[in-house]
Amino acid sequence: MEQEKYAIGLDIGTTKIVVMIGRKNEYGKIEILGIGKAKSLGVHRGVVNNITQTIQSIQQAVQEAENNSGKRITEVVVGIAGQHIRSLQHSDYITRPNSDEVIDETDVDRLCNQVYKLVMLPGEEIIHVLPQEYKLDGQSEIKEPVGMYGGRLEANFHVVVGQVSSIRNIGRCVKSSGLELAGITLEPLASANAVLSQEEKEAGVALIDIGGGTTDLAIFKDGIIRHTAVIPFGGNVITEDIKEGCSIIEKQAELLKIKFGSAWPGENKDNEIVSIPGLRGREPKEITLKNLSKIIHARAVEIIEQVYMEIKNYGHEDQKKKLIAGIVLTGGGSQLKHLKQLVEYITGMDTRIGYPNEHLAGDSDPEVASPVYATAVGLVMNALNRQERNFKEEKITEKGTETDQQQSQQPTNDEPETISQPRKERKSFLEKWSDRVKDFLDNAE
Q1: Residues 324, 267: contact at Cβ < 8 Å?
Q2: Enclosing H/E stretch for 111
Q3: In what ranges is there compositional bias, type Polar residues (predicted)?
């Protein structure tokens, strides 16, 4: 039974829906056992706007993944993104009744739960509460307050907010597709886990995930997520512009973008021309590559400038907040020719394309390591980590009775450590939130 531990990530995107099955090999790397993908029809800018079509697409992708891998798919970890996601900074504090006792998990939980009570706009709900750093009785820059003494515990939080209805709709789609919802994760966080190295997160890095409908941004510094944003443009608006600008159909525009598109107009000679077959016996159209790249360039600049504005909002120009590792581009849109150079030109920051091979097993199919699958790989990682934690939990409850008996025979100093560790890990706020969403959906039925 041991080797059957695999987990599934479900990425509901604007252009495609991906179901990915993976497991950890003996070296702790991730092996992808199967992928299923379907064209996404009921999603606009990361938000579900047609439940029936989305359910059909999910089922189609699930079917394909099951056929590819020979595994049954029952529960999935799903990613959430979309233009309704916004984030804010907030600081809060609690006063402890007894400052002679050391701070423990319950104090930190109390502080975080207080943030969940923040009054949001109607129809919004807090998705993540991510503590940045703590302050104890005025002493600042504390990374981990547990085990310290103090009366007043303060923290700065990065709070991610989303629309309740959008979250419920995603849950409804998953449930109606006959799947269990194992958890929900913010997509920029999933992509970041798949493509960034720990060193980059420490040094400071901005991950830009250019999808079909949205561009997600996640900024890390000192190993902690500092800023997230979702910009409501992606690769689709570039295709739209090509379609309008050249008066051709969407399918042709998409092909043109992928095959001949470039974000840097200076690259093309004036005489390079592509001929596109006309519709139903009409004359073929001739399009110069220079014009094509001018259209792409204009829109790409707009997307990058919006992202750069968010990076400035985070405070990149402040010496302490500098992003030393620069920018990592991922997602399908990152494959646009010369986009890396354009990003470097506009932002003046080092840029690389991020492939989700950071944690993949060496013999993985090269297709899986494409930036297109960054989010899906991240969701599989999240699902596997969740499974491991739950597995440890079960182990602990089994061991609980044994250790009580052993305790009387021999004093073991490290025993309580091993018992409390996973319990602490498990109390991630997102998981509590996932449970809340699950209850919410169950009650809604």
Answers
A1: no
A2: helix 105-116
A3: 404-421
Contacts of 42 (CB under 8 A, 6+ apart): 48, 49, 50, 51, 52, 53, 54, 57
What is the reported pTM? Answer: 0.85
Domain ranges of the chain: 235-300
* Distance in angstroms (rounded) separating the CA atoms of residues 438 and 273: 54
User: At residue 119, what is the residue type?
Assistant: V
Options 3.30.70.1320, 2.60.120.280, 3.30.420.40, 1.10.3720.10; CATH of 235-300 = 3.30.420.40
**Block residue for tokens 């006063």:** 95
Cα 165 to Cα 327: distance, rounded to the nearest angstrom = 32
- Please name the residues in contact with 287: beta carbons below 8 A apart, sequence gap of 6 or more: 246, 248, 256, 273, 274, 275, 276
Query: Is residue 36 within 8 Å of residue 63, measured between CB atoms?
Result: yes
Find all residues with CB under 8 Å of 430, minimum gap 6, and list them. Answer: 127, 128, 183, 184, 185, 186
pLDDT in tens, the chain (445 residues): 344 689 999 999 999 999 999 999 888 899 999 999 999 989 988 889 999 999 999 999 999 999 999 999 999 999 988 888 888 889 999 999 988 889 998 999 999 999 998 988 899 988 888 898 899 998 988 989 999 999 999 999 999 899 999 989 999 999 999 999 988 888 998 999 999 999 999 999 999 999 999 999 999 999 988 998 899 999 999 999 999 999 999 999 999 999 999 999 887 777 889 998 888 888 899 999 999 999 999 999 999 999 999 999 988 888 989 999 999 999 999 999 999 999 999 999 999 999 998 889 888 888 899 999 999 999 999 999 988 888 877 777 777 655 555 554 544 444 333 333 334 444 455 566 666 666 666 665 5
What are the CA-CA distances from residue 78 to residues 18, 173, 199, 434 (Å)?
Answer: 10, 11, 27, 10
For 170, the token pair is 């995603």
Phi, psi (rounded to 5 degrees) for 9: -110, 140
**Is the separation of the CB atoms in 58 and 205 below 8 Å?**
no
Closest CA to 188 of 121, 138, 234: 234
Q: Which residue has the tokens 């920051």?
A: 349
Q: How far is CA 57 from the centre of its chain?
A: 21
